[in-house]
Design goal:
- This protein is an alpha/beta fold and 376 residues long.
- It has a domain of 225 residues: 3-Layer(aba) Sandwich (Rossmann fold).
- The protein contains 12 helices and 15 strands.
- Helix 1 packs across helix 8, helix 7 packs across helix 12 and helix 9 packs across helix 11.
- The chain starts with a strand and ends in a 6-residue tail after the last strand.
- Bound molecules: nicotinamide-adenine-dinucleotide (NAD).
- The site of nicotinamide-adenine-dinucleotide has 28 residues, from helix 1, helix 5 and strand 6.
- Nicotinamide-adenine-dinucleotide binds next to helix 1, helix 5 and strand 6.
């Protein structure tokens, strides 16, 4: 098996590459290393996988210093560049694709819509054409719990309606599922979409709540608590996600139309305020809270029904939120000691928090309150 992992400098991609090479699979990682969040974190992940920033040249394959026999190589490329992508596939005999590259983030899509179309729609189509033209055995791609949008029935099942996305990001993920279906139906391309539910853990994305909250607590800065804490998220630990991905990759769908969609979530939605409490218990620090209204494009609850995944793979994510946060905290503390990229990583958290405060309509100071003063 020779696999292309797109989004290899990203959070899930970094972990997936590690797990795949540990299993002995030949992997090429691809990423455009965009600046949606601090690129130093992306370079640090690559460096941890044996890919040095100084060796990266756009469009050129380089080998990891941490694996033998070119088991892991990396290339900086944009999936919207279909000529370069085709060129790569003509040179390398890929059998599988794990497609994780995307413009992520619900809130960012309100300000930057075209980035989502370029990466998530054009880039996705390019990869489907590649699958068709190079007879790829299994195309596994990241979808998202956000496709459930305004769907009110919980827990979310794959058979629920997903016709009411609440953000452009969600709409592009839903579009991916529809596009994949066309290629499975017309050209028998085996495709599996995985709807991830709020993934967190070491090397996590700095724009997501677990990272933002942890950093704020550790630096005694306010946490923005949306919808005044009246939110629930089905937080899913990264190791569980990677285990699930590894089970799915070697097993393409065998239906008439080789097309599948799976929820991959913890199935234990956590109240936002409980989540903050767990972080406080883990860090031994009190959180400062900035209570805010619901963000446009957000949904109040995410909750995965994983029956379909369990039925087909005898697997479901299992790490408790307490265990996951503890592991994340340990990594975070270690990270702070690694001077190479810590400052910028931390600064990125601070920058987002700072910008958030600047954007508040009124003087935010009144809405900050110590956790101890707030009763839930
Ligand atoms: N993390 C989550 O909780 C979560 C939840 C649901 C779905 N997802 C999906 O899972 C996938 C991985 O998410 P992540 O959290 O690792 O995000 P991430 O942003 O850390 O990783 C995505 C990577 O893709 C790269 N990329 C973006 N556009 C590209 C392009 N045009 N060409 C090449 N590379 C490009 C980025 O540079 C980044 O390194 C994404 O598709 C995301 O939408 C993630």
């Amino acid at each position: 098996m020779k696999i292309l992992v797109t989004g290899a400098a990203g959070f899930i991609g970094y972990h997936a590459v590690n797990a795949l090479t540990e299993e002995g699979f030949q992997v090429i990682g691809l990423d455009n290393i965009n600046a949606y969040y601090d690129v130093n974190l992306k370079y640090a992940r690559l460096s941890d996988a044996g890919i040095s920033k100084n060796d990266i040249k756009h469009g050129e394959l380089i080998s990891s210093t941490k694996t033998k026999n070119n088991l892991y190589r990396f290339i900086q490329l944009d999936i919207a560049d279909r000529v370069a992508l085709t060129d790569l596939f003509e040179k390398e005999n890929f059998t599988h694709i794990l497609h994780l590259a995307a413009q992520a983030g619900v809130r960012y899509s309100i300000e930057n819509p075209y980035t989502y179309i370029d990466s998530n729609v054009v880039g996705f189509e390019n990869l489907l054409e590649i699958c068709r033209n190079f007879s790829i055995k299994h195309f596994v791609y990241a979808s998202s719990s956000s496709v459930y949008g305004l769907n009110a029935s919980i827990p979310y099942k794959e058979t629920d309606m997903t016709e009411s996305p609440a953000s452009l990001y969600a709409a592009t993920k839903k579009a991916n599922e529809l596009m994949a279906h066309v290629y499975s139906h017309l050209f028998s391309v085996p495709t599996t979409g995985i709807r991830f539910f709020t993934v967190y853990g070491p090397w996590g994305r700095p724009d997501m709540a677990p990272s933002l909250f942890m950093n704020a607590i550790m630096n005694e800065q306010p946490i923005r608590v949306f919808n005044h804490g009246n939110m629930q998220r089905d937080f899913t630990f990264i190791d569980d996600i990677v285990k699930g991905i590894l089970k799915i990759i070697p097993s393409p769908p065998s239906n008439n139309i080789p097309y599948e969609i799976y929820n991959m979530g913890n199935s234990h939605p956590v109240e936002l305020m409980d989540f903050i409490q767990i972080m406080e218990n883990t860090t031994g620090k009190k959180a400062l809270l900035s209570m805010e209204d619901m963000q446009p494009g957000d949904v109040r609850i995410t909750y995965a029904d994983t029956t379909h995944l369990e039925h087909d793979f005898d697997y479901k994510p299992f790490t408790s939120i307490e265990t996951g946060i503890q592991k994340y905290y340990e990594w975070f503390v270690k990270l702070k000691k690694q001077q190479k990229f810590t400052t910028k990583y931390i600064n990125e958290f601070d920058r987002i928090t700072y910008l958030a405060l600047c954007h508040q309509k009124n003087d935010g100071s009144e809405s900050f309150r110590k956790r101890s003063e707030h009763h839930f």
